[in-house]
Amino acid sequence: xxxxxxxxxxAPRGFCAGVDRAIKIVEMAIEKWGAPVFVRHEIVHNKFxxxxxxxKGAVFVEELDECPDDRPVIFSAHGxxxxxxxEAERRQMVYVDATCPLVSKVHIExxxxxxxxxxxxxxGHAGHPEVLGTMGQLPEGExxxxxxxxxVATLAPRDPERLAFITQTTLSxxxxxxxxxxxxxxxxxxxxxxKEDICYATTxxxxxVKAIADKIDALLVIGAPNSSNSKRLVEVGSANGCAYxxxxxxxxDIDWRALEGIRSxxxxxxxxxxxxxxxxxxxxFRAHYDVTVEVVETAREDIEFKVPRVLRAxxxx
Length: 317
Description:
By secondary structure, this protein is α/β, with parallel strands linked by helices. The chain has helices at residues 17-33, 47-56, 83-90, 101-115, 129-135, 149-153, 173-186, 200-213, 228-239, 275-288, 309-316; strands at 4-11, 37-40, 58-61, 73-75, 95-97, 119-123, 143-146, 163-167, 218-222, 244-248, 264-269, 290-297.
């Protein structure tokens, strides 16, 4: 007899509109121009997705100088510094920008504040592609990066009364609120975004984890180790009382010995993880346990972002 186990399936989970759009852009570009199509950086942070697109004819590179002039190049969903499309235009390359529209919104905010004479403070993770892309929208020195509340105390802005802040879109909602409070306490005149910079998908997935945290003995987050939003879901699980919160890329990564004796497991997936991998994990549990699945839904998502016009025209023809 298999031991009984309840799987609490968090909803929403998995692909967001920006990720879905970015993947479509690569697929449609290959259909329009043929293989190979070059992609600067992983289009989204998920090995399964990247490998699938590679099999279809995508070539992933880290920098533009690895791309030939005569093949199309796509910029990842995380966004790129302004210098990247400028260089592509100088080389007369065909390029398509797959930056998530919600990341582009943050870019526009940064430029608007810069034009108003404000120096930017960005809350984000150093070295993350989205942070590099956003900071690269403005001249060097115009964006100051903070990662923690402690970083706020050491900020040395040009003029403490002429500041604005923006955030990476995939941060912990709770941690970011603490950093924003510290910024507002130290710099009372700092200007914030008109709307939350942390995207709807990040917020919704974290809320769904909070909703199941008190029901479960363990939490598995399906996602890549370089996926910011996936790692934040693990942290949210831990912060809300789930002592065993782990990131797994797919079912083969599950540590079954660590789960011995448990009666309930929560499952969610980062915004760049396909539902196929969620189903794979559920099937793996069914092989070990007598499983009951309960879906805990905290929000409905029906957002869709259009692909660039050049690809829409190709699809129509």
